[in-house]
TrEMBL record:
Keyword Nuclease (UniProt): no
Keywords for the protein's UniProt record, in alphabetical order: Kinase, Transferase
Name this polypeptide is given: Histidine kinase
UniProt-listed CDD domains: USP_KdpD-like (cd01987)
InterPro entries: Histidine_kinase_KdpD, Rossmann-like_a/b/a_fold, UspA
Pfam families, alphabetized: Usp
SUPFAM superfamilies in alphabetical order: Adenine nucleotide alpha hydrolases-like
Domain UspA: 10-129
Amino acid sequence: MGAIRGKMDERILVCVFYGPNGERLIRRGHQLSSMLGCPFYVLTVDPLPVDEFDAEKTAYIERWKDLTKELGATEFVIRDNEKRPTAKVIAEVANQQDVTQIIIGQTAKSRWEEITKGSFINSLLRELPFVDLHVVSVARTIRASEDEMFERGIRCYLIQEGDSYVLSFAQRKECQLEGIFFKEVGTDFNNGIFKFMDGNQLHQVSVHDGKIDHPEKIKSCIEA
């Protein structure tokens, strides 16, 4: 008679990709691993090499790494520069770590939109027929936050004018900070948010009529 599988024989893999719902999936994985008393891993897959990630994607990665460590996950795995189908990459990592349960997001952005389609789920189940698959629903408000409130981000720069900082969409020698500007939908003015990296941290400040609302935040980062 075969041995009965115990709690510690379970292993959970959380799959996240560029977007705001990754943290929620990681916390769900931690919750499940705590209930089962088993280890969990976090995986992200990307077709680009790490050194080609933009500032926002890099910020998500750093946050996920920190959260993974904070919650006591066994490992955060990055599979970058991947040209193979996502299902095969997930299956490879799952087999390497003897994973028994996988968590994915139902409405994650970008390439992982395909996760919501039966074809992706069927592909994953064909690769891992004995693994339990958890498909977690993502709140519509999370998904809509930037899709519906702001236009697509564009690269821009900040120039100091007195005690203020203003947006510039052309790089000039007096530019002091580079980032991404997200313009509010439905406005004729440059109102929205400006996101930028300071070291490994992603920051954002509000913009009104092309000017930063809280210039002291920008000044403190530049002078640090």
